[in-house]
Amino acid sequence: MSSVADVKRNLRERSEQHLRRAVLSELGRGQPSTVQPYRPPGGLFWRMLFVPLYRRLPWSVKERAMGMLGMTAKGWQPPARTPGEPWRPPPAAAPALEPRPALEPRRAAEPALEPRRAAEPALEPRPADPPAAA
Amino acid sequence: MERVIVIGGGGAGTAAATITKRLNPALKVSVFTEFSDIAYSPCGIPFVHGREIPTFEDLFLSTVERYREDGLDMRMETVVTDIDLARRTITTKNQPEGFDQLILCTGFYWEQPDVPGANLDGLHYVKDIRKSMEFDKQLDSMKRIVVVGAGPVGVEMAGGLAHRGLQVDLVDEGPWVLDGILDPDVAKPVHDSLQARGVTLHLGTKVESFEGNADGHVSAVTTSDGVLECDAVVTGLHKVPNTALAEAAGVKLGTTGAVRVDDHMRTSAPGVWAAGDVVEIPHGLNMIPIVGLTGAHAYAQGRVAAVNITGGELAYDPVWVPWGMVAGDYTIGGFSMGENLARSIGIPYVLAKGVGITKARYYPGAEKTFVKLLAEPDTLRLIGGVIHGGEGVKERCDFLAFAAKRGATLYDLAYMENIYSPPIGALFEPIQIAAQNALAAQRENKLAVAT
Q1: Which CATH architecture has domain B323-450?
Q2: How many helices (H) and strands (E) does chain A have?
Q3: Whole-number mean pLDDT of chain B?
């Protein structure tokens, strides 16, 4: 493996190890049936400097830094996380998955669905704007 | 005739080989595996040791002959020692074998404890079914086992061996079992269940050395908490991607040390694909590559490689990692991440917590199910969760992982439809309850952001 890859791997391994150990120690405090994690000697730089500094940074900065350092995956397209977006078959999918021809238009004589009565109480509306973080 | 070589006969390898052959019968597909068996479930091994599954034979899903009948060229007990990408050959038994397309499914090996005595006889690693069959016979004359590592396999082995009536000590450096995936608020029921089976927990405890007898067989484990005498040791530390062949051939590895692939399972080398435990896959939330996924992930990745090799077009999505297991007798699960991991990475979240029941309250056997969801503070989109207790944990985790992948929010879940049928579902779905609780807290400005 190249030295750059070695450095990246080592950085990830060490930082994860110390960030995790710090969180385990804090989250477990006061929880029934838990103890403090074993803490090996050494790691002063990581414990005293890296962990507090990393935690002070906003997530958006951490995310950017990880991208810049090449710690995130390349060649991947995450699916859109937009609610309501319909699934579509991949472009070269098997013929059975091709979109079906459109159905014939509904006949004019077919009775329309009964409209919702105006007096009917509406369900609790979904907020128009994203809620503010409390 | 074009030839596809698959190295590895686990979930990814068998999926890649069988589906490639099915999609294009004209291809010659060869599977090379160092083992004598194929198509068995290694995940079932702890439950055979625990006498919850009657025999190891129950774990076999198919036979080598069956694969041969399907037209596959099966090379059992054949170790691949080299890959030459320039000549498009692999080497086995000092003989080159040519390929047009190569699929690496070399899986993982267990991390060996880095302490004195780790090479003694009697340290068992849960992987190869033949070795497990031998170990199982030896267990009949044993009384006391030390399990090192309280990850999923360590917990399953500890619970299983205790169920079999053996005295079991479970040792781990972490503050609670399964601390890589589980949050501390779930520690108590899990620990209680393991202890009820007879497992003695030694948490926050480091293994310092393994001691052997005159025959070179392990007889005790020295820990930071004292000496534990034993007849054998089961080790279940970390799964390490088995990348030796790939790395030597010049295939690029990623930040986890596993083989880097794109969403079509293509490696950095043309005509070389990889799938299963040997690859790293990005997490859907943050695109950070991860390893240590499940057999179901491995199979699906093998299928993606097969479709693309045969001229199809199929992408594998970044993962949202639904997981679940039984620890002792207690069912736990989750997806994506819990508080533990979210805080370690530094992702801000709000919590939605609720307790529901698995059947109608009047129906015999109804149990409590605890739901904890993590959501983005501004949009309330799901980012992770932990669920535990009773039936339906697996199904809820599968559903939530999919919902998170598609961007579902706590609003969606608070008003989701659910089945009400007394023997299988209560009037209020526990997921709904958790989401409704979070919305109620938000209305009162009590939905705190954690980082």
Answers
A1: 3-Layer(bba) Sandwich (3.50)
A2: 4, 0
A3: 96
How far is the C-alpha of B48 from the C-alpha of B61, rounded, in Å?
Answer: 15
- In this prediction, residue A2 has a pLDDT band, given cuts at 50, 70 and 90, of low
A-chain residue closest to B317, CA distance: A78
Residue A81 is predicted with a pLDDT of 79
B29-76 pLDDT tens trace = 999 999 999 989 999 999 999 999 999 999 998 999 999 999 999 999
Give the C-alpha separation, B87 to B4, whole Å: 15
Cα B348 to Cα B290: distance, rounded to the nearest angstrom: 20
CB pair distance less than 8 Å for A24 and B262: no
Q: Is the pLDDT score of A88 beyond 70? A: no
Q: Is B397 a catalytic residue?
A: no
Residue B310, burial from CB neighbour count under 10 angstroms (0-12, 13-18, 19+): middle
The answer to whether the CB atoms of A59 and B406 lie below 8 A apart is no
Predicted local confidence at residue B368, as pLDDT: 97
Predicted interface score ipTM higher than 0.85: yes
Q: Where in chain B is the domain with CATH 3.50.50.60?
A: 3-34+78-109+239-309, 112-235, 323-450
Q: What's the CATH fold of domain B112-235?
A: FAD/NAD(P)-binding domain (3.50.50)
* Catalytic residue from among B43, B105, B230, B397: B43
Question: Using N-to-C axis directions, what is the helix angle for B393-405 and B430-443, rounded to 10°?
Answer: 50
Question: What percent of the residues of chain A are helix, what percent strand, and what percent coil, each to the nearest 5?
Answer: 40, 0, 60
Hey, which residues 39-58 in chain A have their CB within 8 Å of chain B? 40, 54-55, 57
Choose among A20, A31, A75: nearest Cβ to B262.
A75
Nearest to B191 among A16, A33, A75 (CB): A33
> What pLDDT is recorded for position A98?
40
B420–chain A Cβ distance below 8 A for any pair? no
Examine the pLDDT at B444 and tell me if it is beyond 60. Answer: yes
Would you state the pLDDT for residue A86?
52
Query: Which residue does chain A place closest to B341, by CA atoms?
Result: A20
B253 touches A at CB < 8 Å: yes
Interface of B with A in 338-377 (CB under 8 A): 339-340, 343-348, 350, 377
| Architecture in CATH of B3-34+78-109+239-309 | 3-Layer(bba) Sandwich (3.50)
